[in-house]
């Protein structure tokens, strides 16, 4: 029997009125099997579009009696019906058309008190297995169990085509004071479109909402959830997952290709590549170009293409633009089989105002703050999550767990961390509220981020978290047990801003800003840094990287090759946005694919080949990656040659091997340029960004260069080299 109280007689008239008014708080009080005043069993169903209803009994199907014109039917007996019982329904709009279904109110609620306790305490890390739409079977009957959190609702119903979007037909049962509502609908197929209809208990307002835990949505502009597809994907990445567990990411190379799935490439007619097509075309390109990881701008469901995915409405839903959840698993699995990791941009900082989604979900500020001084992003027109609310923490932690667990993702890049950490982020005086200590720090957000990182590193060994954090908040990438936020790494926005500001300058003025190249070493090892040249730098009128470079066409391409040489040899892990690698001309546009036709031109192919060779050199040379996060991995040869805009330095590996890097940021060739070195012997160029192969002037150092025996710059020995214009060279010592 469905509920413990089902046989208790209740005031049926008032409950009937509440049902018909779509205000019945607990449908099990009226629907299903009950005991009437004469101590008989009465089974009630509500079928407002039925002409006749029969119920399955031990003697076969027996007719139910219509007791109300609106479609309430009853069956009285001394013994209960078959359990669970089938209903045979003849439609009033199509007499003679009969369908059979199990009564949802013949099935008991399933969610345990322990699950609800953990959820309400903020500690249910796999809430996606409890809430949302779950394919399941009860008493051998297959169907979908729905559950949603709406604590300020008077009534919550499941609506869809299957019940003519009529909120009276499938009202849900509430679990006491947890605010969680549940109902099992038997026989509902995979892919069924559904939403929740919520009536606020105070205002009576009716809200139509998409399931926050739906794992698949309709294709935009439609926005309903779909019941799970019931796929049975077989993973074949066990070797990768085991290797990841033992991965020493502190010392390993990490070279990330950041892409937007909808505009990397498209079909000639403008259609998106599917996840499976991306696997077919993107993975060979990643391997050829020498990337270790691909980072996807958010592919969690979002209604607006122009938000690039950063205004998420489906925190558990793979975007249906590119296929099914199973298709995305195929993509990740294929990447892993090719030894490529997959990182997802994840957005726990804010969510959009779309009325069908999280905003004022049950008519109140449920996921956000009521006070806009705490709960509204003025810059983005979005709501800020209430990290102090337990259920919100369960929601967000479960979202992170979902992507890493269900899709085997290798990391999360957490967007807009700075906006989470500061209560006065982008706000004027009087527009924000201080914390309990009178400070500007969002203490709840700090606690949430620490909890997130602890969960990821404990539950998913080898998975990484990367913070987009643009301020000097201390210890972002330090363990929580020493007071840090616990991220694996942090984007080095200072390096990015200083470097691009320097590279934009006409070379004749660069010597005045030499500090932009050298300042980074004063803080380079305070965090585990990633050096990003990301999507944010090539949109909104900023122009592409190529467009930022000064000079004539030849100098622009030379500057870009030099920039990449600096990035790939500077301490820190690497990230480049799609299109950077072949000197994309226009700034990125989300509405079209990259201009791949530019590769018809030698200059663009040259940049692509230069970065390809740099990537492979970085990946295979321990001195260029092994000590990225450690001061002993870097030493200056000369950081003071501002007059000639030249810097030179050494990168070291744990075994004593090294590479010598010299970068010339002017279009002047430096002949017989002397650099000191602590290591005597014969050196050879292993990379020259001015090579004719890359479209350069082919000035450099052929063969072996032997140290002169003359001290220089405080070093015991030195080299005399030729420095090509607007170029960087990498030198290796014989046997080093």
From TrEMBL:
<dbReference type="InterPro" id="IPR054169">
    <property type="entry name" value="GlgB_N"/>
</dbReference>
<dbReference type="GO" id="GO:0005978">
    <property type="term" value="P:glycogen biosynthetic process"/>
</dbReference>
<comment type="subunit">
    <text>Monomer.</text>
</comment>
<dbReference type="InterPro" id="IPR013783">
    <property type="entry name" value="Ig-like_fold"/>
</dbReference>
<dbReference type="InterPro" id="IPR014756">
    <property type="entry name" value="Ig_E-set"/>
</dbReference>
<keyword id="KW-0320">Glycogen biosynthesis</keyword>
<feature type="active site" description="Nucleophile">
    <location>
        <position position="415"/>
    </location>
</feature>
<dbReference type="InterPro" id="IPR037439">
    <property type="entry name" value="Branching_enzy"/>
</dbReference>
<keyword id="KW-0328">Glycosyltransferase</keyword>
<dbReference type="InterPro" id="IPR006047">
    <property type="entry name" value="GH13_cat_dom"/>
</dbReference>
<keyword id="KW-0808">Transferase</keyword>
<feature type="active site" description="Proton donor">
    <location>
        <position position="468"/>
    </location>
</feature>
<dbReference type="InterPro" id="IPR004193">
    <property type="entry name" value="Glyco_hydro_13_N"/>
</dbReference>
<dbReference type="GO" id="GO:0005829">
    <property type="term" value="C:cytosol"/>
</dbReference>
<dbReference type="GO" id="GO:0003844">
    <property type="term" value="F:1,4-alpha-glucan branching enzyme activity"/>
</dbReference>
<keyword id="KW-0119">Carbohydrate metabolism</keyword>
<comment type="pathway">
    <text>Glycan biosynthesis; glycogen biosynthesis.</text>
</comment>
<dbReference type="InterPro" id="IPR013780">
    <property type="entry name" value="Glyco_hydro_b"/>
</dbReference>
<dbReference type="Pfam" id="PF00128">
    <property type="entry name" value="Alpha-amylase"/>
</dbReference>
<keyword id="KW-0321">Glycogen metabolism</keyword>
<dbReference type="GO" id="GO:0004553">
    <property type="term" value="F:hydrolase activity, hydrolyzing O-glycosyl compounds"/>
</dbReference>
<comment type="function">
    <text>Catalyzes the formation of the alpha-1,6-glucosidic linkages in glycogen by scission of a 1,4-alpha-linked oligosaccharide from growing alpha-1,4-glucan chains and the subsequent attachment of the oligosaccharide to the alpha-1,6 position.</text>
</comment>
<dbReference type="Pfam" id="PF02806">
    <property type="entry name" value="Alpha-amylase_C"/>
</dbReference>
<protein>
    <recommendedName>
        <fullName>1,4-alpha-glucan branching enzyme GlgB</fullName>
        <ecNumber>2.4.1.18</ecNumber>
    </recommendedName>
</protein>
<dbReference type="InterPro" id="IPR006407">
    <property type="entry name" value="GlgB"/>
</dbReference>
<dbReference type="GO" id="GO:0043169">
    <property type="term" value="F:cation binding"/>
</dbReference>
<dbReference type="InterPro" id="IPR044143">
    <property type="entry name" value="GlgB_N_E_set_prok"/>
</dbReference>
<comment type="similarity">
    <text>Belongs to the glycosyl hydrolase 13 family. GlgB subfamily.</text>
</comment>
<feature type="domain" description="Glycosyl hydrolase family 13 catalytic">
    <location>
        <begin position="258"/>
        <end position="612"/>
    </location>
</feature>
<dbReference type="InterPro" id="IPR006048">
    <property type="entry name" value="A-amylase/branching_C"/>
</dbReference>
<dbReference type="Pfam" id="PF22019">
    <property type="entry name" value="GlgB_N"/>
</dbReference>
<dbReference type="Pfam" id="PF02922">
    <property type="entry name" value="CBM_48"/>
</dbReference>
<dbReference type="InterPro" id="IPR017853">
    <property type="entry name" value="GH"/>
</dbReference>
